[in-house]
Structures are given as structure tokens and as C-alpha cells.
Write a structure and sequence with these properties.
The protein is of the alpha/beta class. The protein has six helices and six strands. It has a single domain, classed as Rossmann fold.
Length: 190
């Protein structure tokens, strides 16, 4: 029996009522059979990145984040746009991972909970590709939740659940990961 696919989700917003967190929770709750999604709770707890604290001086919480990334088959990132840029906490988490070996070629799906935020999406894509992550463009998911009342957000997510757009996005990501595994294994044999 194949082991379940494990996806680790990073939420750029640390707000309790974050629309991006709500989108990640909806993806988790609508994941197809054989796919498990865990939403990181570590980003807001990370110390500010400092290259002098890498190597043997790496904080334990950074090692915990890196271990989750290493064990994941893929990563999902959802983040808002703050002042035409990435949220500082998410960028800080990514900075801690830049010189490590957990992220190169790791597949990543971007999910976005707003009708706007193109500056942040462009920056996020650039940062992820610079870090050698494999952005799976066909799995990109954008659902407009920003500015909607709680019940309207719930109704929007329910519609996306009913028409299977949430599970389809995860299935497309799963299929890209599975295809990537086959491609990578073929490269290793040749």
C-alpha cells in the first residue's frame, strides 16, 4: 500500500481570522483520499533570520520547520499582500530555508484568498523559484474571500467544495508531484 501524500501548508498571515488560513483549512478538509495536509503553526514563532545563527547555532524551532518541510511531499503556500509585498513572517521563514537542503526541487502549490495581491504573488513566485522550489502552476488556486463577511466566506468555500474545485486543485498538485517523482526516478536511473 502506498503511503499517503503529505503536504505541508505555510500561511503568510498570522491573523486568527485570516482568509488565507481559512482557504488552507478548506483545502485540508477537501483533500482527496490519500492526501494529508498539515498547516504550519511555526511561522509566527520563528526568530528573525540571522545568518550568524545558521549551522550549529540554528534555533530548534527552525530545525522543526525544516524537518516538516523535509518530510513533506509538497508545500502549499497561501499569503496576503502587505504594502505591495510579502508578509514579513513568511519571508522570514523562507529566508531561514534558503541555504538548507530541504527545499530544492520540492513541489509547491500557491493558493490565494483574494481578488487582488498580484504584487505579492509575483514576489512569492520569484522567491520560491530562486530557492529552487518547483512551482506547480497548474495547481494555482485563487478564491476571493477578502472583504467578505464570515458567512459569505463560508458560502464561497462551500460552493468551491460542492463543485469540487478545492479537491481538484489538490488532485492536480498530487498528480504533478506523482509525475515529478516518476521523472526524478527516471533521471536517477539514467
Amino acid at each position: 500500500m502506498e503511503k499517503p501524500l503529505f503536504l505541508y501548508a505555510l500561511c503568510g498571515s498570522q491573523r486568527k481570522a485570516s482568509t488565507n488560513r481559512r482557504l488552507l483549512e478548506a483545502l485540508r478538509d477537501n483533500a482527496p483520499d490519500g492526501v494529508a495536509i498539515e498547516i504550519s503553526k511555526l511561522i509566527g514563532e520563528l526568530p528573525i533570520f540571522n545568518p550568524d545563527r545558521e549551522g550549529e547555532k540554528t534555533p530548534a524551532i527552525v530545525e522543526a520547520l525544516a524537518a516538516k518541510i523535509r518530510s513533506a511531499d509538497g508545500i502549499i503556500v497561501a499569503c496576503p499582500e502587505y504594502a505591495h509585498g510579502l508578509p514579513g513572517g513568511l519571508k522570514n521563514a523562507l529566508d531561514w530555508l534558503v541555504s538548507r537542503d530541504e527545499v530544492p526541487f520540492k513541489p509547491v502549490m500557491i493558493a490565494h484568498a483574494s481578488h487582488r495581491g498580484d504584487f505579492a504573488l509575483e514576489q512569492l513566485t520569484e522567491v520560491l523559484r530562486t530557492m529552487s522550489l518547483r512551482v506547480v502552476d497548474e495547481a494555482f488556486l485563487r478564491i476571493s474571500l477578502l472583504g467578505k463577511a464570515d458567512d459569505a466566506q463560508a458560502a464561497t468555500l462551500a460552493d468551491f467544495s460542492e463543485n469540487e474545485r478545492l479537491s481538484t486543485a489538490i488532485a492536480e498538485f498530487r498528480d504533478a508531484i506523482s509525475g515529478g517523482r516518476v521523472d526524478f526516478q527516471a533521471e536517477q536511473r539514467s
